[in-house]
Amino acid sequence: MKYLEGRIGWTLLVLAGLVFPFVTGNDYHLTVMSTAYIFALATLGLNLITGYTGQFNLAHSGFMALGAYVVGILTVDHQVPFWIAFALSGVITALVGLPLGFVSLRLKGHYFSIFTLCVGYIMFLVIEKWESLTHGTVGIIGIPAPTGFGGYVFDQPRALYYLVFAFLVVGAFVMHRIVTSLLGRTFMAIRNSDELAESLGINLARNKLLSFLLSVFYAGLAGGLYAGFVRFLGPDLAGTHHTFEMTTFMLIGGIGTILGPLLGAIGMPWLSQHLQFLQEYRYVVFGPLIILLVIFVPNGIVGSYLAWKARRASNEAKKLAAAPAAKPVNTTAPQGGATHA
């Protein structure tokens, strides 16, 4: 993973994403990868509130569904252009998250998680039961495909792939800038210790709320992309199992990193696809694999690599500090006698 560090590594990953459609000639593979990219974008948001701020939001899939339904309702029922509806998907999701954030972020630990679990289930019930707005269990059908310049429509698998990939690249870049900034370090200080962060003058309520809003904003945008990609919506998108899937992506890839959730969100669907030959028994293999990874690689793939790298650097520093200083070389001429040829 030496070459996956810094700009070189990210450039290689972007190039791999650009080349992928030419490597695979199967539209189904493009669909699987595009769906993985959308959930990777949502997982980046969950990783911000969970991995960097230390608050486990179990309503994350509900906010993703909210963003998707904003696009679906506005485009299908009110004929709003897709991109306007898409822009509103993130904004409206953040606005809905604002009062919930005020309430939930005053809680800590498992109390916060239980509260958000209840909020997520309420969001699922609202989507399922409010038929006049969300179409209920029938779902929203006929969501228009995203449009481009000159009347171009992203209605083909390859075009949709590149559109989703572009949003993932931009989303990952912005998230990287956030977590490496002073704001990101503030989030990490809150994660490590509320009391210590507060003693340093950090406003806990304001920064927790900001992290929560950024997180659900990412979820809303991912939901808006999902609506334009799948073009059909049902209440299942708000199910808590999607949040647990994204949590699995974080744990396996490396929670509290940028690359980890991306690797988890992209790699796990492909692993599941390759186990489809086992049909309903594939989870008998899939489940224990995840358990073994969590037990033996608790920091995830990327997190374990970074921890190993830090230990190696520490050991090398200790060796250098413990090494005896080299004796100086005596360069003066010997005294008391002449030299002979």
Write a compact overview of the structure shown:
This protein has helices at residues 6-23, 27-52, 60-77, 82-104, 109-129, 131-134, 157-179, 182-192, 194-199, 204-230, 240-253, 259-274, 282-296, 300-322; strands spanning 140-141, 232-233.
Structural overview:
It is globular, with a radius of gyration of 25 Å. Helix 4 packs antiparallel against helix 10 (204-230) and helix 11 (240-253) packs across helix 12 (259-274). The relative contact order is 0.16. It has helices at residues 6-23, 27-52, 60-77, 82-104, 109-129, 131-134, 157-179, 182-192, 194-199, 204-230, 240-253, 259-274, 282-296, 300-322, and strands at 140-141, 232-233. The chain has a single domain, classed as ABC transporter involved in vitamin B12 uptake, BtuC. The protein has 341 residues and is mainly α. Strands 1-2 form a two-stranded antiparallel sheet.
Offer a few descriptive terms.
about 350 residues, mainly alpha, transmembrane, globular, ABC transporter involved in vitamin B12 uptake, BtuC, disordered C terminus
Strand residues, percent: under 5%
Q: What count of domains describes the coordinates? A: 1
Radius of gyration equals: 25 Å
Structure annotation, total helices: 14
Fill in the CATH topology: ABC transporter involved in vitamin B12 uptake, BtuC
**What structural class is derived from the secondary structure elements?**
mainly alpha
The biggest sheet amounts to: 2 strands, antiparallel
Q: What's the overall average pLDDT, rounded? A: 86
Helical coverage, percent range: over 70%
Instruction: State the order of secondary-structure elements, H for helix, E for strand.
Output: HHHHHHEHHHHEHHHH
Q: Which architecture name does CATH use?
A: Orthogonal Bundle
First-last Cα distance: 60 Å
**Uncertain parts:** 336-341
Tertiary shape: globular
* Order of strands in the sheet with most strands: 1-2
